[in-house]
Amino acid sequence: MIKCNIEKQLKGASGPFSLEIEFTLAAEKTLALFGASGVGKTSILRMIAGLMTPDAGHIKVGGKVWYDSDKAINVPAQDRKVGYVFQDYALFPAMTVMENIRYAAGNQGSDLVEEVVTFMEIGDLKNQRPGLLSGGQKQRVALARALVQRPSLLLLDEPLAALDTDLRSKLQDFLHEIKSRYEMTCVLVSHDLPEIFRLADHVVKIDNSKITASGPPEEVFASAEVSGKFQFEGRVLAIDHEELISIVTVLIGDQLARVLVEQSLAHTLARGDAVMVASKAFNPILYKI
Amino acid sequence: MESGPIILSIKLAVVTTTILLILAIPLAHWITYSKSRWRPIVQTLVAMPLVLPPTVLGFYLLVLFSPSAVLGHFLDETIGVRLVFSFGGLVIASLIYSLPFMVQPIQSGLQNLPTSLREASLAMGKSKLTTLRRVLLPSIRSSLLTGVVLSFAGIIGEFGVVLMIGGNIPDKTRVASIAIYDEVEALNFAAANEYALVLIAITFTILLLLYYLNGNFLKDLMR
Predict the structure, then answer these.
(1) Could you tell me which residues come within 8 angstroms of residue A111 by beta carbon, excluding any fewer than 6 positions away?
(2) Between chains, do A149 and B125 touch, taking CB under 8 Å as contact?
(3) Are A138 and A259 contained in the same domain?
(4) Pairwise CB contact (< 8 Å): B119 & A84
(5) What is the pLDDT of residue A108?
(6) Are residues A182 and A103 part of one domain?
(7) For chain B, what is the mean pLDDT?
(8) Does residue A106 sit in the same domain as residue A191?
(9) Which of A188, A147, A144, A192 has its CA nearest to residue A169?
(10) Domain shared by A39 and A139, yes or no
(11) Higher-confidence residue: A248 or A177?
(12) In a 10 Å sphere around its CB, with 0-12 CB exposed, 13-18 middle and 19+ buried, how is residue B190 labelled?
C-alpha cells in the first residue's frame, strides 16, 4: 500500500507553481496520474522513486516510511528499489539488451530473467544494443528490465506514448497480464483514456497542480466525458459550395468525414480550421470489428 | 639527435596521462553531479591552465617547490623528495597543466548523457560507484578517449611549464620540446629539425588514431 501526501515547488513553462498531491493506493492496485503535460506528473513519480526530494509531506510504501519531512526521513533511491520505466526508456547504450536486463536483475535468479525475456518476447533481441531497437522493442526491454528486479512498486512514465495505436493496445494487454502475474503495485502517468481504462483501478486527475478528481476511471471521467452523444475534434480539409448547401470535408483522427453544412456557416470556415463534429439527435450505431 | 629526449617525453606523457585519468574521472563526476556551492570555484580552478601562459604556472610551481620555500623545504626534509628540476616535478606540473584537457571532455560527456540513465541505475539499487563504472563510463568511451589523447598529445608538446620547473637536464628533465629549443640556441638546426619532425609524426599519429577510433571503432562497439 502507498500513502503519499507531498508538496513541492516546481518550475513550469508559465512560471513556478506549487504541486500538492495526496493519495492512497491499496497493494497490487494500479493508479493512473492523469493531467495535461507540465502539471508535474513525472515529478510525482520521481519523488516516489527518491530521485527528487519533496518540500514537505510524507511517502509511505508497504508500511515503510520513505520520506517524512517532519522526522527528516528521506530514504535514498538506491534503497527504495522501485521498478521505474522512464519515458525515454533509459536503456544503457553501452550494454546489450541482455546485459541491461542482467544488470538490473542483480542477484535475482537467472530463471526469472529467462522467464521475463520469454514472456516479453525479446529473446531475439538479446545481443542487440538499444540504439538499434524500435520504439516498441525498447519499451518491452525497459519493462523487462524493471520486472526482473521484482519490485513491489512499478512506476511507469507514459510508457506507451511514443507508440502507434496497434502496438499500444498490444502492450497494454502485456502490462495488464504483467500486473496480475507479478503482483505489483503500479503508478502510471498517462493522458490516454483507453490506457487508463484498460490498466488503472484508480485515477488521480491533476489540474493546475491540484487534484481535481480521484476515484475509479468510470467515476472520474463519467460526468464530463462520457455521454450518449458523441463529438470529435477535426480539421477542415476542403469546402465545396453546392447550390443550396455546402459540403465540408473534415479530417478526424486519420479518417475523412463529409458533413453537410448550411452555406452561411460554411462561409465562416476556412481550410485548416479546427472544428467539432457532433451527433445531435441520433444514437450512433455500434458494431464489432 | 639522441633518443633520450623523445623517450623522456613519451615516458612523461604515459605516466601523467595514467595518473590524470584516475584523478579526472572522480573530479569530472563531482563537477557534473554536485550541487555544492564550491562547484563553480573548482570548475574555474580546473580550467585556469587553459587560459594562463604555461610560464605562469611553471613559475609558481618553481617558487612553491624550491627547497627554500615552505612546501619545498618540508618535502625535502621529511620525505627527501625534491620536485624542482626532477622528473617528479615535471609529472606534477604536467598533471596540473593538463587537468582541463582530461576533465573537460569527460565532464561534457557525462553532461550530455540523459539524466535518466544515471537515475535508472540508482533506482535499481546500484551504488553511485557501480553506476559510474558500469553505466556512465562505458557510455562516454569516446569522451574518455578524447581526454586521454588530448592530454597525451598536449604533454608531448608542452614547453613552458616544463622548462620552468624542470630545466634542461639530460635524461632527467630534457624532454623533446626542450631539446629542440636547446639545439636552436646552439644554432644546431639539423638536430632541431629531427626532433621537430619526430614530434610532428608522433602527434599526427595520435590525433589520426583518435579520429579514426572515434569515427569507426567506437560506433561499431556501441552497436
Answers:
(1) none
(2) yes
(3) no
(4) yes
(5) 77
(6) yes
(7) 89
(8) yes
(9) A192
(10) yes
(11) A248
(12) exposed
Regarding whether A145 and A262 lie in a shared domain, the answer is: no
Chain B contacts of A94, Cβ < 8 Å?
A: 135, 138-139, 141, 222
Structural domains in chain B, sorted by start:
4-34+53-222 (1.10.3720.10)
**8 Å CB contact of B125 and A88:** no
CA-based nearest distance B4→chain A, Å = 41
B135 → chain A, closest CA residue:
A92
Does B117 reach chain A within 8 Å, measured CB to CB? yes
B121 touching A (Cβ < 8 Å):
yes
Q: pLDDT per residue over A7-56, tens digit each?
A: 999 888 888 889 899 999 998 899 999 988 878 889 999 999 999 999 99
Q: Looking at the domain assignment, is residue A176 inside a domain?
A: yes
In this structure, how many other beta carbons lie within 10 angstroms of the beta carbon of residue B130?
16
* A219 plus A244 within the same structural domain: no
Q: Contact A276/A233 with Cβ under 8 angstroms?
A: yes
- Do A16 and A135 lie in one domain? The reply is yes
Question: Which chain A residues touch B119 with a CB distance below 8 Å?
Answer: 46, 49, 51, 77, 84, 86, 90
How large is the C-alpha radius of gyration of chain B?
Answer: 20
Mean per-residue pLDDT, A152-163: 83
pLDDT, one tens digit per residue, over B73-88 is 888 888 877 788 888 8
pLDDT at B115 over 70: yes
CATH code of A259's domain: 2.40.50.100
Overall size of chain A counted in residues: 289
Range of the domain at A271: 231-278
Residue A109 lies in a domain: yes
- How many of the other CB atoms lie within 10 Å of CB of A123? 12
Q: Which of A44, A43, A78, A73 is nearest to A58 (CA)?
A: A73
Q: What is the pLDDT of residue B168?
A: 82
CA B201 to chain CA mean position, Å? 20
* In the predicted structure, residue A225 carries a pLDDT above the cut 60: no
**pLDDT (0 to 100) of residue A76:** 92
Structure confidence by residue, pLDDT tens digits, B134-190: 999 999 998 999 899 889 988 988 888 888 888 888 888 888 888 999 899 999 999
Give the pLDDT of residue B69. 82
**Cβ <8 Å between B119 and A93:** no
Q: What is the ipTM of this complex?
A: 0.79
For residues A133 and A273, membership in a common domain is answered with: no
Residue A170 included in any domain: yes
Q: In chain B, how many H helices and how many E strands? A: 13, 0
Closest chain A residue to the Cα of B121, Cα to Cα: A104
Optimal mutation site among B124, B134, B136, interface A, most CBs of chain A within 10 A: B124
Q: Establish if A288 belongs to a structural domain.
A: no
B222 — contact with chain A (CB < 8 Å)? yes
